[in-house]
Amino acid sequence: MANALPHIEDSNKTTYLPPVGTNETFADEEDYAEKVREWGLSTTKEVKKQFWYKEATFQRQVTIIGYQTYGKTDDYYTVIIEFEDGNLSCIHPAYLKEMQSPSFTKLVTSESENSPTETVPTKTVEEKAAPAEPKTKEAKPKKEKKEKPKKIELPEDKVHFTAVVKQFAYSWNHFNEENDEVVVLENVRIEQEDPIDIGLAWCSHSKTLKKFELSPGVSLEFDGKIVKKKLPSGKDVEEEFIISDPVPYKINNPSKIVKS
C-alpha cells in the first residue's frame, strides 16, 4: 500500500534542492494536465494534483507548481515540487514517478544496505617517457566557413501567430515511453509590429486542436508561447507520420484559434 510509511511533515529529515534561475509556471489547467501526462505522472481521466515524495523511512505529500527546462534544445525537465510546509525542491519527473510505486521505499532501503563501502585504490602514476620530437604537419587547406543562420530572439510572453498545417506526426515521449501525436506547422510567423518568420514549429495535437479537424494545407491564426525545443522523432511509426526536416521550435498551448 502507498500509505505503509508514516506521513510526516518533518523538514529536518528532508534534503531540499531549491530551484535556481528561471521557473516556468503552468499557463492553465490544460497546460498542467498536458505536462503531467507527458511526464507519465498521471494516467487517469482526472489528472493527479498530489504526489508522494518518499525516502527510506518516511513519505510526504507534494504538489507540482512548475518546472525548469535544460539541455541544448530544452528537451529535459526538472519538476518543482512544493511540500505542505511551503518548502520547494527540484526533482526529475522520472524519479518522482518512481516514488509513486508502493515498492519504492523497499528499493531505496535495499540499495542503501548493499552499497559498497570499500575505498577505490589510488592508481600509481607511471613515470612519463620523454616526449618525442613533434613531427611537422603538412598545412591543410582552410575550409570555407558556412554562414550561420541568424539567431531568432524569441518573445517570452504569448504572441499572435499565423501558420499552415504541414503534416501530422508522432514524437517519442521518453517519460511514458510512448509516441505522442503532434502537429507540424510551416510558414510560422509571429505577427507584430516587426513580424518574425519562424519557419517550422510543432505543437501537441491536443483535444482543443482535434475539435478543429485540421488537415495539411489548412491556414491558422492563434495565440501561443513559443520555445526553442526540437521535435523528437517517433519510434516504429509509419513513414507518413515521420517528419524528415528538423523542427526546432515548439508552440505551447495555442488558443483563440481561427481556421481558414
Describe the structure.
Strand 5 (159-173) and strand 6 (178-190) form a beta hairpin. The chain has two domains: 11-113, no CATH class; 159-259, OB fold (Dihydrolipoamide Acetyltransferase, E2P) (Beta Barrel). Strands 5-6-7-9-8 form a five-stranded mixed β-barrel. It has a four-stranded antiparallel beta sheet with strand order 1-2-3-4, covered by helices on one side. Residues 117-130 have low confidence and may be disordered. It is mostly beta strands and 260 residues long. It contains four helices and nine strands; from the N terminus they run αββββααβββαββ.
Furnish the topology, listing elements before pairings.
Layout (H helix, E strand, L loop, with lengths): L28 H10 L12 E4 L4 E12 L5 E8 L4 E4 L1 H7 L4 H10 L45 E15 L4 E13 L5 E9 L2 H4 L8 E10 L20 E11 L1
Parallel strand pairs: 7-9
Antiparallel strand pairs: 1-2, 2-3, 3-4, 5-6, 5-8, 6-7, 8-9
According to DSSP, the number of beta strands is 9
Unreliable segments of 5+ consecutive residues: 117-130
Q: What is the string of SSEs from the N terminus onward?
A: HEEEEHHEEEHEE
How much strand?
Answer: 25-35%
Count of all domains: 2
Look at the helices and sheets and give the structural class.
Answer: mainly beta
Largest sheet: 5 strands, mixed, barrel
CA(first)-CA(last) distance: 53 Å
**What radius of gyration results from the CA coordinates?**
24 Å
Can you give the mean pLDDT?
Answer: 80
Estimate percent helicity: 10-25%
From the spread of the alpha carbons, the general shape counts as: globular
- Quaternary state of the chains: single chain
Strand order of the largest sheet: 5-6-7-9-8
Number of helices: 4
